[in-house]
């Protein structure tokens, strides 16, 4: 009889990395994902050598081929280059880091995986015979002996078992937008200012500003922007820490008034941070959420065959965090622990990874604070 497939909840970066690493070791897995199979992550993320080099071994690819496959500017012969000198607070970013297109990266990693799209978890039910998964399509799967929750910051895997585990919201106002421009505009306005870097940052009027490349084709380019500043207390019209998820697209007029007040911007910031143009962009208000499940709770879950990884276990703020890198590392190292099949090996994985999670969360918060310090050196653009 063939072994029962291991169930992974969530087909994001951490989930697909774990699934692929197990598949490469001959361990069957099934991933259950709430979203459809349609492209959903058309933006860039920064990958560091300490993350992608172990990933290359799993994918059996050389670095040059890998970069050409997933770099945000790969279609025009680029390799996703980042110039740390163009960043306000580089932290982990070095000359070996690069910007990868997240959707292409996930698509590359998930090759060969059995992913059940539109099969998101609704709840878990633990019984003497194992764990039952109740999925969004009204189906259920009984007798699961090993489940990994990789379903992100709002993990239903975590909430089903640890209902008291909440999220902290850091006191920062952050807006993110995406814009598509013609190649002519990109080549004439953006490229000369970016000077080979796919992300650039600066400060202006107390706000942190970022412009990054998501994708470039022969006809157009996709770029993202970030506007972020410290919150100003309960009277701040732009800071809604208790908003609903569905309210992320509700952008207050006060935000556009703040953008209009920006002065002395040089390209590409002057092109991006134009209030009238921004009103035509896809704009979201981000909450800088963090969480951390206690190690004893993780041990308790493990004793019942339920494991958490990535943002499900240690959510990081979007801005200034290393969520993508640590999720990939979680997937690679957890696969090693599962494959070892030595009793408490997976529990020991928690013991080894937990200090790294704590340090990463601490660094993430410190990075966000440093990004917003008015006395931080201004980046030459």
TrEMBL record:
Name any cofactors this protein relies on. Answer: FAD
User: Which protein family is it in?
Assistant: Belongs to the paxM FAD-dependent monooxygenase family.
Alphabetically, the GO molecular function entries are: FAD binding; monooxygenase activity
User: What Gene3D superfamilies does its record include?
Assistant: FAD/NAD(P)-binding domain
- The FAD-binding domain covers 8-341
Q: Please, which domain of life does this record's source organism belong to?
A: Eukaryota
Keyword set includes Nucleus? no
Keyword vocabulary terms for this entry: FAD, Flavoprotein, Monooxygenase, Oxidoreductase
Name of the protein: FAD/NAD(P)-binding domain-containing protein
Pathway where it operates: Secondary metabolite biosynthesis
